[in-house]
Amino acid sequence: MFLENTFEILPWVQDMKTGFMVRYLQSARFAVVAAVLFSMVVSCEQAEQTTSTPTATVGEQHWPPHAHKFGFDFNRYFVEEGTIKENEFLADILLRYNVSYETIHSVAQAAEDVFSVKELRSDKDYYIFSQDTSQAADYFVYEPNRLRYVVYDLAKKEVEVIERPLDRQRKAAYGVIENSLWLTMMEQGLNYELAARMEDALAWSVSFSHIQQGDFFKVVYDELFVDGESVGIGELHGAYFNNSNNDHYAIKYDSDKYKGYYDLKGRPMEKVFLKAPVKYSRISSRYNPRRFHPVLRRVKAHLGTDYAAPRGTPIYAVANGLVTARSFTKGNGNYVKIKHDKTYSTQYLHMSKFAKGVTKGTQVVQGQVIGYVGSTGLVTGPHVCFRFWKNGKQVNFMTQNLPEPDPMAESELPQYYVIRDQIKGILESIEMDLTVAKKEIALAPAERDAVGD
Fold first, then answer.
1. Which of 75, 267, 420, 435 is the most buried (most CB within 10 A)?
2. Whether residue 291 is found in the same domain as residue 381
3. With 0-12 CB in 10 A as exposed, 13-18 as middle and 19+ as buried, what is 70?
């Protein structure tokens, strides 16, 4: 009964607020009821005022009080998160948030030299910020990766790329090879980028397709963090690899005159030729003038080195040069041949496809992708047959005494030796149990700070 009459009494309470309460408060009973109802009305008015302020929501989710991201206070906006769908364009998204075609066009033009809308990719996250959902959205924020994000100001028609602050942590790791460098690092939970950086640093001195079980490595590197979350590998400061009991060092060194990786004597790690045309591979067949051909079923000279790798694995030019052939034959399948100078040429057989832009007459540089591993031609499985010419004759690449690059100047060596000794000292301080592959080693503060960024 009390609840049924409540809405009839509310106007009466409103009169009380305007100064006419005295004529109604003639009994203690009505005074108590009036006080209760007066409190209800005030609470209703406060609730109406509160709901007039935008709430930070994403679908049915609610952001925590005072949530911040991308420099925005989420409690001041209606916030909606989404993921770009396949074949979905910026206009498809913004039209759903009352943004006009004219504004979308202007924003796209403003973004062209900053972060083109053509660079938006499916399966990437975006955020919409609106102060009034009945009006056009105020901001579109796109997050291509954890290192940066792009803010499209829809009102001002301006675009800005924001780089997130990075925290670099100096780390060390070691591993014992069971199968391959890549698999060893994956099994330890190390970032796959670390394997790529190690191969890049040692590619001229270690044939990673010819490493053996029991080989081991040590590395000193930076890991990058954003808001406490690992986002990748930074600088690789130094690497050590023991291959068949042979020591190989690569020390990172930057100065006004020199930049790259160097051995302990200050000689460039970067040689005229890479050790192999593919990464993460294994040698499946060697140079052999009397090899029994597995397809032809007869003895036929194998004047190259076969590197087995999954179909689609990139094939790299082992040195700078000019593409003299990009063709197909029944036996070779798709192949590329490169002339490096008046003495040396190389050939890469059985490609699944050629790299874009690689044609006869193209100048290529060392490490450039020229094609992809396949099984075209007379083969039994995906691999690249790598052939090497010296003075017009095919020779065994693995046994060649190839030219060395010019060494570092004598005047530079003292400065280099300071960096070398710091990195080498850290690598040598890593104690290894060769029966256990360990993920990471904690560096002492002095070791962490030994090498400048």
1. 420
2. yes
3. middle
Phi, psi of 185, deg, nearest 5 = -70, -40
Tokens of residue 317, six digits: 């030019």
277 occurs within a structural domain: no
Of 141, 163, 185, which marks where a domain is finished?
Answer: 163
d(CA 371, CA 333): 12
pLDDT at 9 over 70: no
Amino acid identity, position 129: F
Give strand pairing partners of 81: 127
CB-based contact 370:313 (threshold 8 Å): no
Distance CA 94, CA 313 (A): 39
Q: If we measure between CA atoms, which residue out of 307, 291, 308 comes closest to residue 299?
A: 291
Which pLDDT does position 207 carry in this prediction? Answer: 77
Burial of 110 (0-12, 13-18, 19+ CB in 10 A): middle
Residue that is written with structure tokens 């100048």 in the block: 363
Say how far apart CA 352 and CA 342 lie, in whole Å: 29
In this predicted structure, the answer to whether residue 158 has a pLDDT above a threshold of 50 is: yes
Residues 388 and 295 in one domain: yes
Provide CB contacts within 8 A for 163, sequence distance 6+: 147, 148
Residues 128, 140: contact at Cβ < 8 Å?
Answer: yes
Amino acid at 435: T
- Tell me the angle at which helices 2-15 and 28-51 cross, rounded to the nearest 10 degrees: 80
pLDDT, the chain, mean:
80
Torsions phi, psi for 237 (to 5 deg): -80, -30
Evaluate if pTM is beyond 0.85. no
Is 24 found in the same domain as 75? Answer: no
| Start-to-end Cα distance in the chain | 77
Q: Which residues of 72-97 are buried (b: 16+ CB within 10 A; e: fewer)?
A: bebbebbbbbeebeeeeebeebbeeb
pLDDT of residue 296 exceeding 90: no
Domain that holds residue 34: 2-51
Neighbouring-strand partners of residue 172 = 220, 441
Residue 157 sits in the same domain as residue 100:
yes
Q: Is the dihedral of CA 14, 16, 19, 23 positive or negative?
A: positive
